[in-house]
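User: Could you check the structure of this?
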Amino acid sequence: MIVLAVLLLLVVALVVLFVVVTGTTPTVSLEWAQINTTITLTALAVFLLGAACLLVAQLGLSLLLRGNRKSAERRKELKHLRRVEAERARHAGGPAPSEAPRSGGAPTGSATGSTAPTSTTAPRPDAGGRAGSSRS
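Assistant: Sure, the predicted structure tokens are below.
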């Protein structure tokens, strides 16, 4: 890859040198009929104008690619953080903040949005010390 890049840069350098040495004599007339303007440029000026347009296009494409890369990284990080938060909520015993209740019934809580803890009654140990046993 590096060898190919160096060869391409050498070819471009040779083309630029050729245009600079031989491209000063002929002229090009550019007419813009809508605003009645005619511009006369040398071949070197047209070449340099094309090179400047290419550099601006390259800059625009590189900025676009950098923006896409940063957006993808941001989305990936957000997805990872959501997964970590869901796993943390699962280990804590409650539903993840973005998950809806899975029971199919109405969610518990008051109209203000706060959820009240539900109480479950555990079997009380009897005199023998065993929970939920009716044997004596």
